[in-house]
Amino acid sequence: MGDDYVKVRVQLEQMRSFGEDEGADAEEQQQLPGSSPPHAPVSPDPSSVTIAGSDASSTSVTCKQRGKSRSRPGRDDKNSCGKHLQDLSLHGSAAHAGKNLNRLGHERTLHIRGTGKILQGKSETNGNYVSIHPSKNIPEVKLANKRRPVTVDTAKAKTSLEALKISIKQLKWKEFPLGRRAACDIYWHGVSFHDNENIVSGQVNKFPGMIEMLRKINMSRAVRTMQELFPEEYDFYPRSWILPEEYQQFSTQIRMVKENDATVNPTFIVKPDGGSQGDGIYLIRDPSDLKLMAGSQAKQGVVQEYIHKPLLIDKLKFDIRLYVLIKSLEPLEIYIAKEGLTRFCTEPYQEPSQKNLSHVFMHLTNYSLNVHSGNFVHSDSQNTGSKRTLSSVLYRLAAKGVDIKKVWSDIIALVIKTVIAVVPELKVYYQAEIPPGKPGPTCFQILGFDILLMKNLKPVLLEVNSNPSMRIEHEQEVAPGVYEYVPSPVDKEVKVGVIRDTLRLMDPAHRKPSVSPDEAALPSLCLKQVYPKYTKQFNYLRLVERIASLFIRFLGVKGNMRLGPTAFRTFIRTCKLSNSNFTMASVDILYIDITRRWSGSTPDSREAGMGLQAFVEAFFHLAARRFKSLPMREQVASLLDLCEAQLEPQSGAEDRRSVSCSRALPRANKTQSLGLTNPQLNSPTPLRRAASQDYRLHQRLKPRSLRANVEN
Ligand code: ADP
């Protein structure tokens, strides 16, 4: 056995033991549109990295990746090879440190330059390297370039199928249209996380709980919580009241506004919870016009301030559909598609009056409604017709002197803030569905943001769709009474780009999109990273996420989404929040008070215990008691600091890496990770005890029957 072989063996051992650390983010640095392009660091193809160390003349190491990368949080999933490569690169002249190189189950091929020796081995899913054997005279290039294509299960893709097929073809990946007995790398679901049950590995394009989270009531609540803490930052969401519970509040407030100023006559838009495509939506000018009941049942929904001065183009109201990818929850990674769609009304806009309130083609921009108007224009051109690309609209505005850079950066801020508002509860869903330690897939999701530009160019969030339509054809009447699906070039242009580039970003081998050989023919990514890129500007908003981390920690039991009274007491005790002024009896009263108020107000109120939103309310209450003299935001931040400080000594370093909401977590970004903890495994004994006592109160939250198989 030659010296080189021994050297490489040693290096392999080092790779394994260095598995703690890894290179920085492999994705390209992104810029806002209009700003100067970043100086993109030249990165190697991570699937084949050659290192020239101090003895570069004789030895090179090729890390070849293969197979699905289902990494787990913690030590085993880290990039041992990457770390080693970095170490080597310190000494060598031509070394490129690949990022996200070392995934589990990857083959490694070691080339010993000059000797013709090739060592091959494979790392097991637990990160161990099982075999390594020298073989002679195998052509280096052939081995280094060979990799199996990424596999995609498209059996449940539904209406995304067309665009997905085109994307897979462009990437030269392998589609399984009927599913596959063996595991696939990626599962593409048309509706929800649960479209395929029992997926234990790979990646799914839906997060558990996203549909529930983005229903109109839940979404309004999540944004409202943020509005309480950060009123100025969250002024992009119209004032909303939840029905039926806030009907009295709504009518009192409107009456007072009108009494104060008789010339004011605001309009409101009423939206059913879980509705889509404009279904059940209507405008009102007086609270008494609300239709509160459906038969004997109170209608759940929201009533919202109507934005009566939208920006018009060609005298028509329009809204923007923007595609946003949540690539990972922990660490939080958000991408925005540079291209989107704009959907136009088909009747010239007039400010609302009693006469025109029911004119849906004037007030509602939904494609599904306007397509039935005789004025709807199907156009192959991207800048005419009733559906246009976002860029064509922005160019048009720019030509009129609008500062579209400002508009775009306001839109990005709106998107990041909205995601920050919904992430806390998503994390609760995630840990309930895939508790740490349970095998499961990692998740990503494309969301559809509906945004209205006001006349003064301020973007307003209308809603976020968990299941945005990815259809690239539309129904058309080709002869009287005869309808056919015909291709829609505008949809195709935008949606295929979004799906294809989402896949490129989710490539389990983590080849850098811009350097993968198969990608030479592909256009540059249409998805731009905005988070963590803009972490500095927005991280301070993530207070509720820290509250959610506490909540999850004290949930204790796998699959749980609600805190029982014992666990709530344990939280108070562990964080030392009770004293002679706030006895444990008061704690119990607070618990009962808040949970009672919330029961009946949430869609899943059949469940006993305290959900996250109720816990947040309790937390705000505790913060106000404890830090009376401070402004609200500081009260909450101070209480969080206090609780976290109390928990710090108990949790130790282990807590830090216990829960990952994106299990494919090769790079722990400490600056933005909020340190979610594994409630089951790492909780101190009292927590576990409390959790098991409360467990009797709970049933695992099952996904609700999904009305949301409607895409919008
Ligand atoms: P749906 O999920 O049913 O499409 P949306 O919340 O998207 O419900 O509302 C449907 C349409 O109504 C939007 O596309 C937009 O044109 C209009 N709309 C919704 N909310 C407002 C609002 N607050 N102000 C003005 N127009 C609105």
UniProtKB/TrEMBL annotation:
Keywords from the named record: ATP-binding, Ligase, Nucleotide-binding
Coiled-coil region list: none
A cellular component term, taken from the record's GO annotations: ciliary basal body
Record's compositionally biased regions (Pro residues): 35-44
A Gene Ontology biological process term: microtubule cytoskeleton organization
Statement: the UniProt record of this protein carries the keyword ATP-binding: yes
Pfam families associated with the record: TTL
Ligase found in the keyword field: yes
Top-level taxon: Eukaryota
UniProt biased composition (Polar residues): 45-63, 670-685
Region annotated Disordered, chain positions: 16-85, 670-689
Comp. bias (Basic and acidic residues): 73-85
InterPro entries referenced in this protein's UniProt entry, alphabetically: TTL/TTLL_fam (IPR004344)
Example GO molecular function: ATP binding
Protein name, per record: Tubulin tyrosine ligase-like family, member 11
Source organism phylogeny: Eukaryota, Metazoa, Chordata, Craniata, Vertebrata
Gene it is expressed from: TTLL11
